Amino acid sequence: MRHAENPPNPYHKYTAEYVGEPPDTKLEIFEETATKSMIVKSWSPDLGRRFVVNCYRGCVHGCTYCFARQYHEMIGFGAGTDFETKLVAKVNAPEVLRNELKRTRQKIPYLEFSFASDPYVPIEANYELTRGCLEVCREFRIPVFVLTKSPLVTRDLDILKDLDATVGFSIPFLSVKTSKPFEPYVPTPEARFRAMEKVAAEGITVALALAPVIPGYNDQEIPEILKKARECGASKAFMSLVHFATESVEEYFLKRLNEELPTKAAKIENRIKGEKGGSMIHRSMTERNAGRTESWKVIKDVFELHMRKLGYEKYERVEPGIRQSLPVQRSLF
Predict the structure, then answer these.
(1) Are 101 and 143 in contact (CB under 8 A)?
(2) What is the per-residue pLDDT across 58-72, written as a single tens digit (0 to 9) for each?
């Protein structure tokens, strides 16, 4: 990787609306020039097989609960503030993805944009790596699912309209007041709802990701979030329980929780531990999204009741093999 001495300013190129706060520490950008593969294959009992694309490492949004913090440790950075202040841009991402799909397209039924970073972190306004990869997907006529917290996704409506695309918006909190302790630098919930409405108006399928649910904190907001998202055009929805895979991510989460919500921290911590059998960290992938208490069952029932009441469809990922018959442009091979 090479260090970018003068990180690009995304607001020099686009008219910007103030929708969030910048990190309170210096932002550093590193450019990864030796990326050899863009498609990450993963599997879990609740999600099945996934084919994921990430153009960036780290995320300026700084969500304290983000499970992807652990991946920053794999490249020598920390899972705490390094995650939101040391960002890596895979500058050859579109080229690598194109070459990869030339070899493997018939084995890849769809691609997801999200996982280790939001595909629309602010520096995407300059680098346009996610946009470039979406253009590659259009060339290969491959379905995509994009999950984001950023209104910047609306910039790429011209490409998304040409794709078999679903755009998911992660909105686990209804207001700035409830969002800010856990999502310090994320565009406001209202900004995400407006972006959702704009995407839906173009005839693109929109999904609400009510993730994560933090028992004892935002579960009471579930009905209103579902209602608001439905009014803004969301037709599918899913939710997930907050989860932690490593001690370092758990430690950072609890540190920020006690700083931001000192009077509620103990209650929230105990509620999470209650769902995980006494520990914050799930013991297996099977337990990652599974709560143990009657309270979690009630939360799930409330979610499903309002899903039905509002006319949502349950969001389910495309399973490998479903799209195998899609034609591919022969000129690309």
Answers:
(1) no
(2) 999 999 999 999 999
DSSP code for 68: T
* Boundaries of domain holding 36: 21-318
CATH code at position 85: 3.20.20.70
Burial profile 36-73: b = 16 or more Cβ within 10 angstroms, e = fewer: eebbeeeeeeebeebbbbbbbbbbbbbbbbbbbbbbbb
pLDDT in tens, 257-285: 999 999 999 999 999 999 999 999 988 77
Q: Is residue 10 part of a domain?
A: no
Phi/psi region, residue 181 (left: phi>0; alpha: psi -120 to 50; beta: rest), is: alpha
Distance CA 69, CA 333 (A): 37
Task: Please state the domain count of the chain.
Answer: 1
The whole-model pTM stands at 0.89
Residues 6+ apart with CB under 8 A from 291: 215, 241, 275, 297, 299, 300
d(CA 138, CA 224): 35
Ramachandran region, residue 66 (left: φ > 0; alpha: ψ -120 to 50; beta: rest): beta
Q: Rounded to whole angstroms, how far apart are CA atoms 228 and 42?
A: 32
For residue 216, give the DSSP letter: T
